[in-house]
Amino acid sequence: MHGLVNRAIEEFARVTYGEPVWATAAAVAGVDPRGFELMGDYEDRVTACLLSSLAARLGRSTEEFAEDLGAWVAQRPSVRRLLRFAGSDFAAFMMTLEELRGRGQLVAPGLELPALAVTVTGQGWRVASDCHVLWLHAVTGMLHAMADDYGVLAVIEVADSGILVDVPVVDFNEARPFSISDPAVGAA
Questions:
Q1: Is position 66 within any domain?
Q2: 98 lies in which domain range?
Q3: Domain tally, the chain
């Protein structure tokens, strides 16, 4: 697993749950408590063990933890800007998800994000992928965060090797401010 993914897990744990939670989970997973090298390459089992350790320490399932992680990552200002740049509204954003893998590789060569295939359904979309189920949950969290960012009421769930996104109300809330020219606008 790319170091950037592991560093995101590390930062999420440290910022959200504190150093003691991170230190305990890192020890259980056999990870250096000082953290991950951003451009390092780690065995997938290390990442899986770390996710399991963190989820267990917090009394959550690994799927719930992965979803929270995805939402947290999407709210980081630099990631949010990259995601919001993809579309002026939630529908346009959804239709550019297939480009996410390539964009990730532009930002961090060697980063292997899951390949996503988006199809339009009645009131929303189906996002298909043959990736590990925890990736699906992380993407689900990211989609929840982006739906909120765009002011859309969306029901989003993992189902049948993919993600179902149902949008009963497009203008549920006002979208968060966003400007491509000013990184401070909408930064939270």
A1: no
A2: 73-169
A3: 2
The pTM of the whole model exceeds 0.70: yes
**84 lies in some domain:** yes
Residue 51 lies in a domain: yes
- Residues of the chain with confidence (pLDDT) below 70: 169-170, 175-176, 178-188
Residues 56 and 77 in one domain: no
Own/partner long-range contacts of 142-148 (Cβ < 8 Å, ≥24 apart): 142/70, 142/71, 142/73, 142/74, 142/83, 143/70, 144/67, 144/70, 144/71, 145/70, 145/71, 145/72, 145/74, 145/75, 146/74, 146/83, 146/84, 146/90, 146/93, 147/90, 148/173, 148/176
Write down the pLDDT at residue 169. Answer: 63
Query: What confidence score (pLDDT) does residue 184 get?
Result: 58
